[in-house]
Amino acid sequence: MQLLSFVSLLGAASLAAAQTAPGNGTVTGKMGDARPVKNNPVGEVWVATFDGSQGVKGTVTAVGWTLGVNYTVDVTGLPEGKGPFNFHVHAKGVPVNGTCADTGAHLDSFVRGQDPPCEASLPATCEVGDLSGKYGKVDAPAAKKTFNDPYSALDKIMLGYIGERAIVFHDASSARIACANLVKKA
Ligand SMILES: *[C@@H]1O[C@H](CO)[C@@H](O)[C@H](O)[C@H]1NC(C)=O
Ligand SMILES: *[C@@H]1O[C@H](CO)[C@@H](O)[C@H](O)[C@H]1NC(C)=O
Ligand SMILES: *[C@@H]1O[C@H](CO)[C@@H](O)[C@H](O)[C@H]1NC(C)=O
Ligand SMILES: [Cu+2]
């Protein structure tokens, strides 16, 4: 009886160790977990417009909320057979020549890096810009998805500021298939 409970204790201990192994929850930003943003201008709207010239057509909208930002992805034209698609806020905007390669890496305000991948159950430990890592990928041909990200900021002085940065869609090979800048709606 005593031995049995000792054995089950050991089992529980190794299970706990497995759950906190590197790559599952122990990796966070060098500046700590992303901080929830509570002072965004509620209702302020930013839109990334995909005009179809890169195949993807539609919008990714970011609306200020009392906790971070509400995003709505509403796009068509995701290429069949190339998904599922990741999408991120990247660190830089799209240059005038439209090259998605020049949008930098994911927005990573708390300096976490991409490896190991984001653990969706622990979104504060993920890169701020890794929206599909936190809230799920989308698939071809059309995607409509709404979610709240507590860590996205609409104020330039805040960590996690997403304004004027690019939303980038990647295919399953991680190629950057389409990008557009988040622009403040007048
Ligand atoms: C991480 O741990 C959680 C439970 O804490 C588990 O649900 C999840 O599957 C684990 N993820 C990985 C990648 O091991
Ligand atoms: C933002 O999303 C929350 C739910 O996550 C919802 O209660 C709220 O009404 C939304 N706000 C706006 C401005 O869309
Ligand atoms: C596009 O513009 C960026 C920024 O000015 C530049 O670094 C890059 O070389 C350009 N790419 C092409 C293909 O013209
Ligand atoms: Cu990306």
Automatic annotation (TrEMBL):
Entry annotated with the keyword Signal: yes
The UniProt record lists the keyword Secreted: yes
InterPro entries, alphabetized: SOD-like_Cu/Zn_dom_sf, SOD_Cu_Zn_dom
Catalytic activity: 2 superoxide + 2 H(+) = H2O2 + O2
A matching Pfam family: Sod_Cu
Gene Ontology cellular-component annotations: extracellular region
Enzyme class: oxidoreductase
Domain Superoxide dismutase copper/zinc binding: 56-172
Protein name: superoxide dismutase
Organism: Cercophora newfieldiana
Classification of source organism: Eukaryota, Fungi, Dikarya, Ascomycota, Pezizomycotina
